[in-house]
Amino acid sequence: MTANQNHTPLPTGNDITLPWHLRLPKPLEKDFRLYFRASAAKSTPWALALVAFLIVSAMFIESRISVDVLSFSWRSRLFTLMLTGGCLVLLRKPQWRNWLHEATLVLAFAISLTGNYLGVTIEPSLSYPFFLHTPLAILMICILIRVPFYVALGSSAIMIACMIFSLQLNPGRYPFEPTTLVLVSLAFTCTGLFGQYVYERLLRQYFLSEHVLFQHRNELHSANLVLENQATVDGMTGCINRRGMESRLNHLYHQLKQKTPDAPERITLILFDIDFFKQYNDTYGHPAGDECLKKVASVPLGMVQSDTDFVARYGGEEFVITLADSSFNDALVFAERMRNRVEQLGIPHSGSRISQVVTISVGVACSDSNAENGGQLLKMADEALYQAKGSGRNRVALMSNQGVVEVLN
Ligand SMILES: Nc1nc2c(ncn2[C@@H]2O[C@H](COP(=O)(O)OP(=O)(O)OP(=O)(O)O)[C@@H](O)[C@H]2O)c(=O)[nH]1
């Protein structure tokens, strides 16, 4: 990475410009629809409640101005109120929210069509309030109840077309200029649609910036995981490296001491070292030594099963196996079986003074002894390993809980 790249700021998503026609790339567009519905669902109950309030207020005002108008209008008002109430009830259930926009459109069409129908069928002098249903429905779609811009655009156009058609059916029947009514509706439509366009655009921009940030967070997280893995894994054997081992062991010990809910009951540490490895390198060469290390490491790696247990490369040809929760006896069985399996690999070692094949010496220590921390536990296992070496190699020695080293066999 160059110095220049190091200083490139992460994109925030705010610098991404949206095309005027509001479309996002296909996969994002699908996510955005869900996001749009969820955000519209939050405001819709309040919007519907407001619509209900407006209708009740309109009925109240009508009753004060002219009882004649109310005697015609109450049916359509009640119908609208029932639909609005029905929508409110449906929206309480999350699964019905998927139908939010469809329900909104049906509601708006119902209001507009009943208004237009009544407008052309009742007394001309009373028809005016009913034609106002159409602009009200358009306003409702566009401002109160959020539907996607293109849906609002299409449905508003259809509603206005219906209105013009109704007015054309009975020319000269109305006490006012139909063109004025259409123009008023068009003005409502344009205002509403403009608001809807701005709202949707802002929402898209916000969604996009959130999405981009989210993606970057994910990428950073994955990169961190890779780096963390690279920093704590030994590239040659695949074991955890010394640094990783120390941090994991300290963590386990911390849990043990603090008695956290997921703390292990005890920690057993198995330290082993390949016998006469210097001679192996001298006899077969360093690359062959590397191959030997890989084969030997594969034995404990294949034996460890629990997620909390792990194999680490402690030094050049020294390895540590940490077992959490195993009993001391089980750990000894593990150690002995591992020693035996390495011997069974049958890797020729003519430089060894104790065998024809590669062997290991093993030291075992357990936290049930007086070890206060991971470092002390390692020291105890090392003392046991030293004794295993001193007692002829290719064997297991343990540091007993009383602090005495015992060599097996
Ligand atoms: N091939 C190879 N050799 C390594 C690596 N790391 C350490 N060694 C070698 O491992 C050898 C360790 O030698 P010593 O510490 O004397 O141990 P030893 O010969 O096994 O003797 P004992 O442990 O007493 O049996 C050294 O010769 C190191 O060069 C490695 O990554 N690859």
From TrEMBL:
Protein name listed in UniProt: diguanylate cyclase
Transmembrane segments: 43-61, 73-91, 103-120, 181-199
Reactions the enzyme catalyzes: 2 GTP = 3',3'-c-di-GMP + 2 diphosphate
Cofactor field: Mg(2+)
GO BP terms: cell adhesion involved in single-species biofilm formation; negative regulation of bacterial-type flagellum-dependent cell motility
Xref: InterPro entries: Diguanylate_Cyclase (IPR050469), GGDEF_dom (IPR000160), Nucleotide_cyclase (IPR029787), Rev_trsase/Diguanyl_cyclase (IPR043128)
Gene Ontology CC terms, in alphabetical order: plasma membrane
GO molecular function, one term: diguanylate cyclase activity
Residue ranges occupied by any GGDEF domain in the UniProt entry: 265-401
Pfam families: GGDEF
Alphabetical keyword list: Membrane, Transmembrane, Transmembrane helix
EC nos: 2.7.7.65
